[in-house]
Structures are given as structure tokens and as C-alpha cells.
User: Fold this.
Amino acid sequence: MQITEKQLAQVNDRINALISAGSFYGKKLAEAGITHVDSVEDFENLPFSEKNDLRDAYPLGLMTAPEEEIVRIHSSSGTTGLPVIIPYTAKDVDDWGEMFKRCYETAGITNQDRIHITPGYGLWTAGIGFQNGAEKLGAMVIPMGPGNTEKQLQMMMDMKSTVLCSTSSYALLLAEEIEKRGIKNKIHLKKGVIGSERWGKAMRDRIQSILGIELYDIYGLTEIYGPGIGINCSETEYMHIWDDYIYLEIIDPQTGKVLPDGEWGEIVITTLVKEGAPLIRYRTHDLSRIIPGKCTCGRSYPLIDIIKGRTDDMMKIKGVNVFPAQIEEVIASFPNEASSEYQIRISHFDGRDTMRLYVEAVDGSVDFAQLGNRMAHAVKSKIGFTPIVKIVENGLLPRSEKKSKRVIDERYE
Ligand code: ZN
Assistant:
């Protein structure tokens, strides 16, 4: 995927707007002597923008349109330090709604549907984004917001909600509750639009099997409108990205170089038409890859893979980018022999990286050496090199109530 002439013109438009507004990024571009881009090379040399920079612009330094045109702000959750404030013009809000409407349509949702929205309303972009798109579509919105499972289920039954919008963990909680109460026959859900978390196949399968609904993965982040900049269609798990509003690149998170289609790396997004707070080459830290070729659904919007985690989780071993989700997939392909627990140790000696993978067996009936060999082969075919796999007794690896530390990199210790 390469930036088109039209997209380059849109980028130049945004660069002009940023510079003439003298906003946070406008000043940065002006200081770097950048006034426009003429080619793909020029574009790929533009500096990245980062969440930390956005924090430096707090509170309203990103504002690039005149104040009288700003109709709303949103803010990303500030778990550390200052939050990021993103101003929106009426056109930004409208564009976002159009993209979201397109997401619903891509999932086969129509104005005959009743859309049950459980993500939160407020400063963040979740609930209100789902709502804007649904209203543009002309569907009936049930604006629940999060929590109060009792009431959620009551409304779901009484309103005959047909579409559930939620995080994957809340969808699972609701599904299990529906199963437990034996009310499946009173639930009219047909589809789920799930966003905001990385979720594995096991979780997807479980929600799907309990509720018997189609599930769609929606993508987005507050800095770039919010959820709704892409979604998968019924033909594939890969997500279509709305490239008339955003331009998406995949870069090597270490070198910053743009990677060819098909290779895994970090998603970088440029907003093409945003007015309130345009962003140029914003590093999302989300990991994915561009899927080459056209989708069988006939849509020409480019495809990206399901988000595989964050760059902070990524390891570079023997020059190959590896992330825990890939290893988890391999382990999950041995469900009767391996438990879900594992540990990765990376070391460096004799000038070479070595990856050792410790995996727990389900029980003592497993042939440890033989399983280790097969798993090493499976890892090799997935990531391209052979690790040392050691199968260990169930319960041997450390457990933690919080997030388990699964990767130990001894190269830099
Ligand atoms: Zn498609």
C-alpha cells in the first residue's frame, strides 16, 4: 500500500492548516522547516507524532481550527500523567459518524436493527461514537452505557436488542450470565460489534457459541476520531480501513522504517481530512500488518490483520520481530497436551540470540521430549527460527494474581 497523489494533496492541506493555525504540531513542522511533501519519500521522512507529545500540548495545544468551529472535545484516559485532549469540529464529528455508519453497514447492520450500546459515555470516545454512527444509520439506539448487568439483560429482552456493542470481556460476561439464567430464548441478538481490547480466538469462540451471534472487530483510538476507523466484513477476520479518511502505515517500531505489506509492525496513522486536531504519522503502538490483495467481499478498502498486541510486548530475536500472541497461538494449537502457561527466556551468547520456551504440560501422561520437538517445529514455521522448547510439569511456572511475567530478556541484564 502506498500513499496516493490524492492522499498526498490531503496531507499537504493538513500541513498548511497546522502551520497557519500555529498549533502544537504546526510549530513543530515549521521549526523542522517542513512546508509540504512532494513524494512518497518526502512523506516517509515526515517526523512521527507520539502520545507523549500530545500530552505536552495539554490542554488545547492541538486545536488547529478556529475556536468558534470547535464543537466538542474528547479525552483519552490518562492512566499516567496528563490526559490527551482532542478538539473536534462539526465536520470531524460528522465524518466520524459517517465512518461509524460504514462500519455498521459493513457488518450487515441496518436501520431495522436495535443497537444496544454498553461502552461508556463521557469524555472518552466509546459510547458516543457507537451512538453517532447508529443514528446516522437510522437504527434504534439503546444507550445503556456500562455496568448494571441486571438492567442490561432486562432491556435486552424487553427492547429485543439485535446488536450488542461492547468490549470483549463485557460481551463474555453478559453471554455467561445469559447462559447461567437460561434466558437465551428471550434474547434476540444477531450480531456483536466488539472493540477496544485485544482478544484471542478462544474468547471469540466462547462468546459466539453461547450467544450464537456473528462477531465483528471494530478498530479505532481516541487520538484518531475514536472507534470506527475500520471493521471486518463477513468474509474475513481482517479489518477494512477507511482510507478516504486516514492513511495507515506499518513501521518497524525499532528503526521507524516503513515495512512492506504483509510484515508485522506498528500501526502509524495520518488523518487526511481532520480539522480540529489533525495528526501526521501518529504512532499508535498497536501491532498489525497490511494484508495484500483485495477482499472477496469486493470492497477496495485496504485490510489489516487483527491487532496482535502492543509494541511494548514485542521482542526482536535473531533480527525477527516476535510477540507473545504468536507464541500463544502455537501453544493453543496443542490443547490436549499443553496448558496455557508458558515462559520465554531470551539470551545472547557466542554472538547469537537464543530463545528458550518453557511450556507446561497438561499432566504427566504427555511425552515431554516429543511434545517439545513438535512445538519447536510449529514455532519455526510460524516465526521463522527454531527455539529451544522445554516442556515442564504442570504448576511449575510461577503464577501471579496480576499479569504474569512471561518474557524474560537476559540479553540486556
Ligand atoms: Zn471484505
Summary: The chain has a mean pLDDT of 93.
